[in-house]
Amino acid sequence: MNQYIPILQETQLFEGCGKEDIEAMLGCLQARLRTYKKGSFVLRQGERLDKIMVLAEGKLHIQRDDHWGNRSIINIITPAEMFGEAFAAPDSGALLNDVLAVEDSVVFLFDLNRIITVCSSACRFHSMVVQNLFFAISEKNRKLVQKLGYMSERTTRGKLIAYLSDEAKRKNSSAFSIPFNRQQLADYLSVDRSAMSSELCRMRDEGLLRFDRNRFELL
Amino acid sequence: MNQYIPILQETQLFEGCGKEDIEAMLGCLQARLRTYKKGSFVLRQGERLDKIMVLAEGKLHIQRDDHWGNRSIINIITPAEMFGEAFAAPDSGALLNDVLAVEDSVVFLFDLNRIITVCSSACRFHSMVVQNLFFAISEKNRKLVQKLGYMSERTTRGKLIAYLSDEAKRKNSSAFSIPFNRQQLADYLSVDRSAMSSELCRMRDEGLLRFDRNRFELL
DNA sequence: ATAAGTCGGTTGTTTTTACAACAGAAACGG
DNA sequence: CCGTTTCTGTTGTAAAAACAACCGACTTAT
C-alpha cells in the first residue's frame, strides 16, 4: 500500500499532508486497496456505496447504459482522481452508472464514516482531510452549477453569452482568454462545433464581441 | 435569534438536532443574524464569501446579469433553505450571481471554519452538523450531475431517454411515476413543452414506451 | 522543404426545435 | 350540474441546430 503514497499526495483529499502523515492516516481511515483486471467492473449500476474511492493506477471509465442498452461514457478517471464521493453518503440511493476498468487498475477505498467521524487527536491531519473533502466536493459543486447555468440556455448563442459573461466576471475584465479551443468549448457546452463557430462569427459581426483564437473581448 | 430555532430545526444542516442542542451550538458556531429590506442585496456578484447562509424569514432571488445586462433568475430561496455553501470554501473565487431580497428577509450566517473545525466535545452535536453539511452538499452534487447528464444530450428525445432511463433505474422498474407534469418536466430538461409533448408521442408511436399522465412504462 | 495533422471558419442541406395557436379531457369550485 | 381552469396533445410555420464536407492558415515532424 505504501508504494502508492506519492499518488495519494497528489490527490485533493490529502493535499497539504506529508508522506508520514498519510502513512499514519491510512490505518485510522481503514484504507483498503483493490485491484481490477482490465475489463472488469469497479462499481455496477444498482450497487450501493459507502466508500470514497481514489484511483492509484490504471484507467477507469464511468459509463451509463440507458434502458434500451445504448452506452455512453460519462467521464474518464486517471490516477490520483477521486470518485464516488457524492454517492458515499447514507441516503444516496443506488448508483446509476457503471465504473469499468479499461486498464488493469488499482483503487483505494476509504470508509466515509471513518473520514467524517473525526477520531481522537492521534492523527493530526485528520481534520485537514475532512476539510479537503469538503473543499473538493464544494468545488465540484460550483463547477456543476456553472455549467448547468450555461447548458440550460436554449440556444447556442445563449450558452455562449452565459459562458463568456461568467468568464469576464471571473477574470474581472471584458477581455480574457479561455482554456478551450473551439472543439473543446463546443463539447463543454454540448453544441456542434461548426454551428458554434458560425454563431460566434455572427455575434462578432453584430458587434457583440471580438475574438482571436482563444482570446475574447466582450463589447 | 432564538425565535428562529424552529426554522433551523427544519434545515438540512441541523437535521436530527434538538432545540437545546441548536441553541448551544449557535454560540460555538458564531452564528450571526442579518436583516435585509425588500429590494436590497444579500450578496453581490464579485464579493467573496466565507459564510454558509440559511434563510430564516422572507424570500430571496438568486439572479444573474450577463455582460450586456440581461437578468435571469437562477433560483428562489424560501425559509429554512441553505445557500452559499458551495462558495464558502477558501479558494472559491468571487460570486458570479447576485442574491436579492424580494421580501423583507432575515438570514443566518454561519462561519464555515467554525463548522468544519470541530471544537472540543463541548457541543455534542457539532460533528453531526459537519456530517449534515457534507450530506447536503453531496446530495446537491448528485442531483446536479444527474441533471447535467440529461441536459448534455443534444436532442429532446435524448434528454427524455436519459431522464426516463434513470428514473426506471432509481425505481428499479420499467414502470414508474415521475414527480413532474409536462410543463415542469420541460422546464427541468430546458426544452419547449409542446415540442417535448410531440416527441413523447412520437416515441410512444414508435413503440419505445407507454405513458398516461405522469405514469410511464419503458418497453 | 514538404507532408501530415490541427484548427478555425464557411457553406448548404437536413433535422430538430421553438413558438403560437387551438382543441379536447380532466380537475375543480360553487 | 355547469362554468372555469389546468393539463395535455396536435398542427403548421419559422427559426435554429446538427451534420457533412470543404478550405485555408498554421504547426510539427521527418
Observed structural traits:
homodimer; 219 residues; alpha+beta; Jelly Rolls; Arc Repressor Mutant, subunit A; 4-stranded antiparallel β-sheet; 7 helices; 38% helix; 24% strand; globular; DNA-binding
Can you put this structure into words, describing what you see?
Two copies of one chain form a homodimer. The first copy, chain A, is of the alpha+beta class and 219 residues long. Chain A folds into two domains: 2-143, Jelly Rolls (Sandwich), CATH 2.60.120; 153-218, Arc Repressor Mutant, subunit A (Orthogonal Bundle), CATH 1.10.10. Helices cover 38% and strands 24% of the residues of chain A. Chain A has seven helices and eleven strands. Chain A has helices at 5-9, 19-28, 112-116, 126-151, 156-171, 182-189, 193-205; strands spanning 32-36, 41-43, 51-57, 60-65, 71-77, 82-83, 98-101, 105-111, 175-177, 209-212, 215-218. In chain A, strands 1-8-3-6 form a four-stranded antiparallel β-sheet. The first copy, chain A, has a four-stranded antiparallel β-sheet with strand order 2-7-4-5, with no helix packed on it. In chain A, a hairpin with a 5-residue loop joins β4 and β5 (71-77). In chain A, α4 crosses α5 (156-171). Chain A is globular, with a radius of gyration of 21 Å. The termini of chain A are far apart. The model of chain A has no long low-confidence stretch (mean pLDDT 89). At the A-B interface, α4 and α5 of A face α4 and α5 of B. The structure holds a DNA duplex (30 and 30 nucleotides).
